[in-house]
Amino acid sequence: MHLGNFGIDLITLSGSLETKLREVATAGFSQAMLWAKDLAEYPAGYQAALQLVKHSGVRVSGMQVIRDYEGLNGTQHDYKIDLIKAHLSLCKAVGSPLLIVCSATNPLPDKSDETLEQDLRKLANLAVPMGVRIGYKAVPWGRFTRSVQDAWDMVDAVNHANFSLVLDTFHFLADQSAVEVIDEIDPDKIALVQLADFSVFEFHNRTELRDRAIHMRVFPGQGVHTARLAAVLRRIDRIGYRGDFSFLIFNDDYQQLPPRFVLEQAHRSVKWVTSQVLRRSLPLRGANGVC
Asked: Which residues 6+ apart lie within 8 Å of 237 measured at CB?
């Protein structure tokens, strides 16, 4: 494992797209997760944003995010398909190999659960010609798929080469899944592991959980669930996962601070994961490229 295995979601950082990419590269990270709005909101326009990303020296590890897709019907389903096609075109244009899809959270029509696998298989097929892999993740407030076990069961049931699992450690900790669940997962079917801890011990309801998820995440090694998070990461490593890790830290405090400060926290977290959890040496590059 080396620093090239670690990236950061740009939503973690404050500033313009240009600033974020520059600071990510300067900090020694070679990859980042983008959101469609990163490109859409660039002042010089969409094409200029694409060129900026391509010449930044930062590899795009994936694109966020499709929500509330599976289980819809009629015009609602058609709308989502059009939206997904637009996102897939965007992935191809920016060189993203992965599109992340979160499990549906909205109330769904009757008997929608019977079409979930069919809908997700259709999504995987749509992505094949674009050269984009679909990464599916559960959210604890999901309608049907809420836990790591639920998400893995769905990926296994869809059984498509282009449809894989995204593990988000925040959700894993929040839904209190047993770490033994990881042993059932095929490591080749894990598209990405997203890293985060949080700063409270427990949640009293799903509304509070969702609120904490989008405001109070912290980097691994900084939260109150380090022991459990370490057990999760060691289990993922033990089953043979050797893919990428991406920091996904929704934190209101970080949005008020320079990206360089936040990326310093990310560096500390990389060291915690590699040297204290997985016990591997990792040379970290500084701003001047020196280890």
From this structure: 278
